[in-house]
């Protein structure tokens, strides 16, 4: 804390703004990654459902 007392207000404001930008980038990146993972899982499930319907349609019902 002594280090923060010795720096100017301008530098403190710059550090605060930088920390806010860093936090916003981390938050938005996390949201994008989570959304991508959900989309990939959804696409995989949909693809498996289509394949299951194709197998059902092509089966002879033996």
Show the helix and strand layout:
Elements: H1 2-5, H2 9-58
Structure characteristics:
mainly alpha, 62 residues
In brief:
This protein has 62 residues and is an all-alpha fold. It has helices spanning 2-5, 9-58. The mean pLDDT is 93.
**First-residue to last-residue Cα separation:** 78 Å
Low-confidence stretches: none
Shape: rod-shaped
Whole-number mean pLDDT: 93
Number of helices: 2
- What letter string, H or E per element, gives the SSE order? HH
| Helix amount | over 70%
The computed structural class is mainly alpha
Give me the count of strands: 0
- What Rg, in angstroms, do the CA atoms define? 26 Å
Largest sheet: none
Strand content: under 5%
Q: How would you characterize this protein structure?
A:
It is a single chain. The protein has 62 residues and is mainly α. The chain has a domain at 22-62. It has helices spanning 2-5, 9-58. It is rod-shaped and about 80 Å long. The model has no long low-confidence stretch (mean pLDDT 93).
């Amino acid at each position: 804390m002594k280090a923060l007392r010795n720096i100017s207000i301008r530098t403190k404001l710059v550090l605060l703004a930088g920390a806010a930008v860093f936090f916003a980038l981390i938050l938005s990146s996390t949201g994008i990654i989570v959304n991508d993972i959900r989309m990939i899982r959804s696409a995989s499930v949909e693809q498996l459902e289509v394949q299951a319907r194709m197998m059902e349609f092509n089966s002879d019902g033996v």
